[in-house]
Amino acid sequence: MDANTGAQKQFKTELAYNESFLWIGRPKRGIVFTIGDMIFIPISIIWCYNILKALLDINKSPITFFIAPIFLTIGLYIGIGRLFWDRALRRNTLYGITATRIIIEEGIFSEDVSSYDINSIPKIEISERYDSWGTITLNTDTTWFGRNGIRLRGASKLPSLTLIENVREVYNLILKLKNN
Length: 180
Prior knowledge:
transmembrane helix, alpha+beta, 42% helix, 5 helices, membrane, transmembrane, PH (Pleckstrin Homology) domain-containing protein, PH-domain like, 7 strands, three-stranded antiparallel beta sheet
């Protein structure tokens, strides 16, 4: 059984009567480094080094024993923990496109399924890498802020098909379905 057959079986409950998938995919597997990691990882190394240095200092204050582990945990998460969290989230993510909808299933501790009517998505953006992997962002926010790419504090992230292979082909499929 190939990956798409398994994905279709997993996704079958999300289909309406007489609906079928035109495309099914998953995000890139494994740990993925981004440009931001060039900043986050070195800063977290320096952060953790300074916390460990404070913990090993001879003239320790008693408060150091309570505060330092909290800051050490934050530094470890910023440096490497978020990479493993992202990997786990992508491992449990599945994307599907039908003639009328884009379906996204994701979650680590629960299965969250979102369905977006292709014709009601006002803006679709593509970010393509040199190796044909990339991300398609569905700007479903119809407020003035959302249409102009401004996200208010506390607003949820825009839905996207993240790190998919042959992103340009999938993007063209969505545009073709949207224009029909």
